[in-house]
Amino acid sequence: MLHLKKLSKDFAGKPLFTEISWHLKKGERVGLVGENGAGKSTLMRIIAGEVESSSGEIQITRGGTVGYLPQDGIIAKGQPLFAEVMTALSELQDIEREIAELTARLEHEPHDAPGHDQLLDRFGHLQEEFRLKGGYAMESEVGNVLTGLGFSPADWEKECGEFSGGWQMRIALAKLLLKKPNVLLLDEPTNHLDIEARNWLESYLQGYPYSVMLVSHDRFFLDQVCSRIAEVWNHAITDYHCNYSNYLVQREERVSALREAKRRQDEEVEKMEDFISRFRYKADKAAMVQSRIKQLDKIERIVLPPERKKIHFRFPAAPKSGKTVMELSGVVKAYGSNVVLDQVDLTVESGERIALVGHNGAGKSTLMRVLANADVTSGTVKDGHNVIKDYFAQDQAQELNASRSAYDELLADAPFDMVPQLRDILGAFLFSGDDIHKKVGVLSGGERNRLALAKLLLRPTNLLLMDEPTNHLDLFSKDVLLEALKNFGGTVVFVSHDRHFIDGLATRVVEVGGGKLESFYGDYEYYLEKTSGAAAAPGQDGLGRLTPAKGEEKAATPAEEQPDQQLSRQQQRELDKQRQKEERARERKLAEIEQQIGVKEKELAKLEEEMAAPEFFSNHEAARVAGERHAQLSSEISSLYEAWEAI
Known about the structure:
AAA+_ATPase, ABCF_ATPase, nucleotide-binding
């Protein structure tokens, strides 16, 4: 489908790629990975024809097409959303117009008129082509894609210019998916998508009939979509025929093998160089010295990949708080006539890690601000005993002072006793050397987010409220943040659209939507299992898959459906709580039994050691008592094991 032949690209005399030869087969879905600045986006732009290579060539199957979605910068305006997206199917629209013209002519032209048979043939040919290319379902397909990407039917007639930057990228993605290019290039396609739209796109790409190459910082998305990982490093591409998680394992094995091979090579080279330096000026060794020099020249030196720079940090020890950290009662939050939260209740308990989920605009960020600032229209927000909270807003990086240096930005909020540690904190977030004096205004999105995260380390806290903390972070930084939050001793409430991040952290999921909150006491997989039959957004199920439109199947009336649905949800919440209590009780009981087994087995082992002594049975009474105790301990241990197995 796509073949790169000795492709090279230089920037200002420095090589980015050097004679890359690489092949993409039909139907393959490849994840392009590598360090920032390695050239992933540049390679995509070269394939898309937006940037010229320095040398080499790109071969695409005859008649093949390439479609490219950049990270940002695409804006559509001038016509309604649905009409704009329909332009992606311009070929089908042209066929449809010609069919309409031929229909009009055939209605008025006699069947025995000259050229009538040719018109009929053309009409039949176009109808068949229109059918085979899905023309009769094109409006339905456009609707499916728009719904999958989070647009409601009410948005379809809005003028495109009314949509913000993130929604503009969704419009561009919708048009690209509908065009179905033979090589689909996606650069960070999930950046502007909520979790429902990501789930839908994941499913769509899994069934995409042609080839896909994508760059993403969403590990779960890469794992689900890609069956091959191409790593851009050291001016070349290395292939791993597996998903992203397996790539990490295989890459580490490969690098370990390279390190060992380089160690052996370095030892061999050192021996040769030592021989050459010792015998260079001895006439009787001249031939051997020259032989060693030639061998050295022929050795192809092994180059190790540079160690990946990773942020590394731990949150300060969390002060102990009360059992109930926060409690919301009858909270209403409205902006004018728009009621976002309507009479909601929520209790946050110490040690919980709560993920807030819901489609864009459902009210997740509003709820986070309520938790952080208690800014409500009505109702009460009560903090628990000794609660110290810190809030990381969705646009926290934008709150930084652009005129300050990275160091001064941290210094401005640092307590006096933390000032000596500021350089260490900045170093942990990859600000070293002169980087700490960079102005905030010139930092990249990822650097700004790292600096904003660094500010969370200035003061001990026991409640972290984090709205999209992983924005602009690379895959490795996300993993480090995830580990730090797992080890955090306090309570975390967070919003994230990264499935891997939610899966790894959440112990409870709260769904926000329709002004209400619904809790699911378990991880994200449990939440998906419980909501897979319920609509997560208009036209979608809980996994983001499309559901039948109104009228396609008989639906119960609200009067018939609502009471039962409400009752079942209430019952489900109670069952969830009961299940959690039973599980905790079961774990406590198991721990108690295991402790008892350990004590009894130690006592039995000590007794058997005493009984093994040759002089032990000389005292018949002591031997009798020991024998009885041995039998009793054996019986007790057996009973404890039976109880353990039963639980």
